[in-house]
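Sequence only, no structure available. Ideas?
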Amino acid sequence: MSTTAKPNAVVRDCGPEGCEVDWLSSKRHEAELDIAEFTQFSLDQGWGDGLPVVPPTEARVRAFLAAGNRYPDEIVCTLPPMDAECTVEKVAINAVMAGAPPNALPLLIAALEAMARPDFELFGMNATTASVVPLVLVNGPIRNALDIPYKHGCLGGVAGPAAAIGRALRLIVRNIAGQLIGVTSQSTFGAPGRVAGIVFGEWEERSPWPPFAERRGVPGDAATVYGTNGTMNIIDTTSQAGPEFLEMIGKSLAYPGANGFSSAVPYAEIMVAVNPVWAEIIHRDVPKLEDVQEMIWNYASFDADHITAKHREQLEHLNRIHANGRVYLASAPKDVFVLTCGGTGSLHAAGFHSWGTCLTQTAAVQAG
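Reply:
I predicted one. Tokens follow.
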């Protein structure tokens, strides 16, 4: 089956559990069901990503839709750069190909709805020369229902559905949005996350701060999308106190080639994942989250003399150099996003540098 749909049906005389009406509108293809042969077929058709693909048979797509209890012709959103209508059926087809579980459908829909919001600027993200990819942070009980990792190895390596869910989103961006390398996407290097995505949860039970989505006005099950240039490890085997950890985190983030320091970027956010051991120490010594954000923001900066004269001149023209002579990575302390996840082995934090023109979005995950 392809992801090319006929005009959407508008009259419904039965529910998503089944009836005599054929709600599936995508074009059918005759193809071998052998995984290796179908994977090659998907590449020939332009649907594949190079990894083995599960053939999206009619039975598999119907089963996926039935588990999600959604009408296949429902339009989830419109996705740039092709401005294509993304229906629930198209989501299901790509999710089946990626190997994602059917109960992930509500999470996939929430993530896509968030990505499609104008302030996320998906068009630019899909077309840019940067290596940016939408990160998906999951909050709420759905983390456990879907086995989304948020403890040890949460950013990669945990056996479970997170990689398949992330891959489903990437196939949707490829096959529906139309992000094609060298055609609509000018990414100079790309990134592994452009194949498998980045999907993980917040360890809410070990966090001294309210869940990230709740802080953004979306309590319970939620998906946050954040445009990141990848993951950055920050190691600190020496610090003992909260302010020391925050200083090390902030200074580690502040390297001149980060997108947030580019004169081509009007503003920047920064996301920091702190392991639960550090989070407890930081909260003990710096109780207010706003102070934590401000300390990281302050340290994630450098003196303008640290960069070349030409770069400094460009940043001066944009009023990016503060009165104290420093340039700051994030636009303001509020744009420093701090959350808790990762293993109890401590010693590390993770940084996620933003792309620049997309604003982080959070959407509620609606039950099917």
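DSSP finds 13 helices and twelve strands in the chain.
Hope that gets you unstuck.
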